[in-house]
Design brief:
Length: 214
């Protein structure tokens, strides 16, 4: 079902790297955050859910302007910008450990808003980067590869990274906020690795998309 020739394309290989590193980290983050807020900090499910409102609003706003930014600048720059913003947001989540049981929905707004804004920039770059070198005849197969990887990694994130988080929580004696800090460090490293790959391929990614002429 998968044409082997597509795997020779730099864009497809990098798109696969984005899927494996970013989407698994994204779903793992959402799962571990919810688990920490409810099982670790004693929040009610509705309080835990409301803690992600700022993330959703920021994601929506960022997604509205991302296509214009990509058209104005290169996909590589927008991707690196999204990664940088998300890393800052992940680091701000360290307030979980310092605030401990006093952590509230309002305290999470700065970090989750930055994470959501960065995520939208990365997602908008994902398909554009993955599909940029694919011919029209292979468009269906190429998009299927990226979509399948996206869905698979979104499912694998809570399973693999969630297991890592629970292991960290067990080693810390059930201290979920402390385990979350260690987990966020892993997520930051994953985003840094993705950023390093993007910098390595910057000559390929920083070419502006071709503008269609009537």
């Amino acid at each position: 079902l998968l044409p082997p020739r597509l795997l020779k394309l730099t864009s497809i290989r990098f798109g696969m790297a984005i899927a494996l590193l970013f989407f698994s980290a994204w779903s793992g983050f959402m799962f571990c955050m919810a688990l920490t807020m409810q099982a670790g900090l004693g929040m009610a499910p509705w309080q835990s859910g409301n803690s992600f409102i700022a993330l959703g609003v920021a994601y929506f706003i960022s997604a509205l302007y991302a296509p214009k930014l990509i058209a104005r600048y290169s996909m590589g720059r927008i991707l690196l910008t999204g990664l940088s913003v998300q890393i800052v947001g992940l680091l701000l989540c360290a307030t979980f450990y310092r605030l401990a049981t006093h952590t509230s929905t309002l305290a999470l707004i700065p970090s989750t808003a930055l994470i959501g804004y960065g995520q939208a920039l990365i997602v908008n770059s994902f398909y554009r980067i993955g599909m940029r070198d694919i011919s029209a005849s292979d468009a269906g197969a190429g998009s299927a590869i990226l979509s399948t990887l996206q869905q698979a990694t979104l499912g694998l994130g809570p399973a693999i990274l969630g297991s890592l988080f629970l292991t960290l929580a067990q080693r810390s004696g059930g201290d979920y906020p402390r385990a979350l800090i260690d987990f966020l460090a892993v997520e930051v490293v994953m985003m840094l690795v993705l950023g390093a790959i993007a910098l390595w391929l910057r000559r390929h990614l920083n070419v502006r998309p071709a503008v269609a002429t009537p």
